[in-house]
Amino acid sequence: MSDVWGKSKDKIAMKKDENNYAFIDSQNLNLGVRSQGWKLDFARFRVYLADKYNVTKAFLCIGYVAGNESLYTSLQSAGYICIFKPTLELPNGDVKGNVDAELVLHTMIHLSDFDKALIVSGDGDFHCIVEYLLEGEKLLVLMVPNRKKYSGLLKRKDFLPYIRFVADGKNKVQKKTTEKDKERPQ
């Protein structure tokens, strides 16, 4: 099977000087990976995006929770541009901070700044931006966090050549378990 550039499905045609941006649904990425029994090393993932896909800027859309400032600082130090969404604490104690609008908005704000976009999410709410990028020949990759659990809206025939799975790079992006991690309850 070939993609639109005439390359095999497993190889994305890129030039070394390409200026590609990633737009990441952090919660979908984090929960999608964890649901498969492993943890993502966000710093290693940022390097992976740069090395494999020539991602020069990575926008991480994330709900802002007071008290998590050290997490946000570490993500920014790893090279992410954090796009914060205010969160709400629900009556049951859960925190809600849906970042869908932020991801789509920032993709559109920066549309003329990048050559191709890499979208990281398995959420069908991003169907519209994936479709728009594909039609404009601006879609590089749709990276899905969980191969077994992602929206049927993203399984369109014309999207399939662009889909990659985070677990395909697991050996490069998995968080290494330390002795301290083993002692900590999950």
Describe this protein's structure:
The protein has a single domain, classed as 5'-nuclease (Rossmann fold, 3-Layer(aba) Sandwich), CATH 3.40.50.1010. Helices cover 31% and strands 22% of the residues. The chain is built from seven helices and eight strands, in the order βααβαβββαβαββαα. A six-stranded parallel beta sheet has the order 3-2-1-6-7-8, with helices on both faces. The longest helix has 12 residues. The radius of gyration is 16 Å and the shape is globular.
Question: Topology of this protein?
Answer:
Blueprint: E1 20-25, H1 26-34, H2 42-53, E2 55-64, H3 69-77, E3 80-86, E4 88-89, E5 95-96, H4 100-109, E6 117-120, H5 127-135, E7 139-144, E8 163-165, H6 170-173, H7 179-183
Parallel strand pairs: 1-2, 1-6, 2-3, 6-7, 7-8
Antiparallel strand pairs: 4-5
Please sum up the structure shown:
By secondary structure, this protein is an alpha/beta fold. The protein contains 7 helices and 8 strands; from the N terminus they run E-H-H-E-H-E-E-E-H-E-H-E-E-H-H.
